[in-house]
Design a protein that fits this description.
Blueprint: E1 11-15, H1 40-52, E2 57-61, H2 71-79, E3 86-91, H3 96-106, E4 110-114, H4 120-127, H5 132-145, E5 150-155, H6 165-174, E6 177-182, H7 188-192, H8 200-205, E7 211-212, E8 227-230, E9 238-241, E10 254-257, E11 262-264, E12 272-274, H9 282-293
Parallel strand pairs: 1-2, 1-10, 2-3, 3-4, 4-5, 5-6, 6-9
Antiparallel strand pairs: 7-8, 8-9, 10-11, 11-12
Helix pairs in contact: 1-2, 1-9, 2-3, 3-5
Bound molecules: S-adenosylmethionine.
Residues 20, 26-27, 61-62, 64, 90-92, 114, 153, 155, 182, 184-185, 187, 191, 312-313, 317 line the site of S-adenosylmethionine.
Length: 317
């Protein structure tokens, strides 16, 4: 679909739950229940309509998608839909060791893993949980079953883990894992404190051995929001996602379907359209989605004082 600013919108980020097994300081603001979560049937019905409108790539996210017991079934049903060419997933990897194989078998091709530190004490301070070892086991298993590309997404926060960039970059040395730094966005009190943002440029300036990749633009499918760098002898690349310092809204190709059936057109804008009243009527659903896409804002409103709401776990990261 083409939106009112001429952008091709063909990427659906599908949040399957607002619940999470971690409690990251910059992300989760409220507890949620599973009461209003879309069922696999409803997800299938909705994604079929998105696919008929030209959406080709779907990312399963949350909350933490792997805490849904039926996540493999959801993945299998979504991947089987005509028109869904690529199915990927974002996870904190706490349950990835046991889920990597079933997910791969269900049709998930790649995973993004959120990991902000390699230090156990820092990990606990950021996430509230003591399970860094499980995350690394999950990464190993994902690699073993062939989920590819494998990416680690890290948020650096001043006064918390800003000194960990070097250790995180090292993860790309011996394994084909891309490590990407995402700037802190204004969700939760932690994220709303601008003084805590570590910009992409700040990180880059500390690692002069990183050189821009020749092909900074990704392939069509990966029409990527990240700028990539490489280092001699490293198997993986280092990426920078800079929604705050250099937004990439003019290239945005995504919308978000939330776990309660609301459609969110932009991460940094509160406008949401409830699709649930139309869930049993394919024609009406299609019309609502078409109308909604035309309301997608030109850009996010972080710089205009938009402060997010209820944390990113509720929107789908
Ligand atoms: N639970 C999954 C995970 O941890 O990857 C998926 C959902 S989580 C909301 C997705 C991503 O959003 C994570 O990489 C997390 O770091 C990022 N995120 C959450 N709040 C953020 C914030 N305030 N600024 C930047 N990134 C944020």
């Amino acid at each position: 679909m083409i939106d009112s600013f001429g952008r091709k919108i063909d990427y659906l980020r599908l949040s399957v739950t607002k619940r999470c097994n971690l409690n990251c300081v910059y992300c989760k603001e409220s507890e949620s229940s599973k009461a209003d979560e879309l069922t696999p049937d409803q997800i299938e019905r909705l994604v079929k309509v998105f696919a008929s409108l030209g959406f080709k790539k779907v990312r399963l996210t949350g909350g933490e998608p792997l805490i849904r017991e039926d996540i493999a079934e959801i993945a299998r049903r979504v991947k089987a839909i005509d028109g869904v060419e690529k199915l990927v997933l974002t996870t904190n990897a706490v349950r990835l060791k046991e889920m990597a194989k079933p997910l791969k078998e269900a049709g998930v091709s790649a995973v993004n893993i959120s990991l902000d530190t390699t230090d156990e004490a820092e990990y606990k301070a950021i996430t509230g949980a003591d399970c860094l070892k499980k995350v690394f086991e999950g990464i190993d298993e994902a690699e073993k079953v062939g989920l590819s590309p494998l990416r680690i997404n890290s948020v650096l926060i001043k006064g918390k883990n800003e000194k960990r960039a070097g250790d995180l970059i090292e993860l790309a040395r011996n394994k084909k894992i891309d490590v990407r730094f995402i700037e802190l966005m204004p969700f939760t009190d932690e994220g709303k404190d601008e003084a805590k943002i570590v910009s992409g440029e700040e990180i880059l300036s500390s690692f002069p051995f990183l050189k821009p990749c020749e092909n900074k633009k990704a392939t069509a499918f990966e029409k990527s929001v990240a700028r990539y760098y490489e280092a001699e002898g490293f198997k993986g690349k280092i990426g920078f996602i800079t929604p705050v310092s250099h937004n990439f809204c003019s290239e945005c190709n995504r919308i978000r379907l939330l776990s309660d059936g609301k459609l969110r057109l932009c991460l940094g804008n509160e406008l949401q359209i409830d699709l649930m009243p139309f869930i049993d009527n394919e024609k009406a659903l299609k019309e609502e989605i078409e109308k909604a896409v035309l309301k997608k804002p030109m850009s996010h409103s972080f710089a205009c004082g938009y402060g997010g709401f209820h944390g990113m776990n509720n929107i789908g990261g």
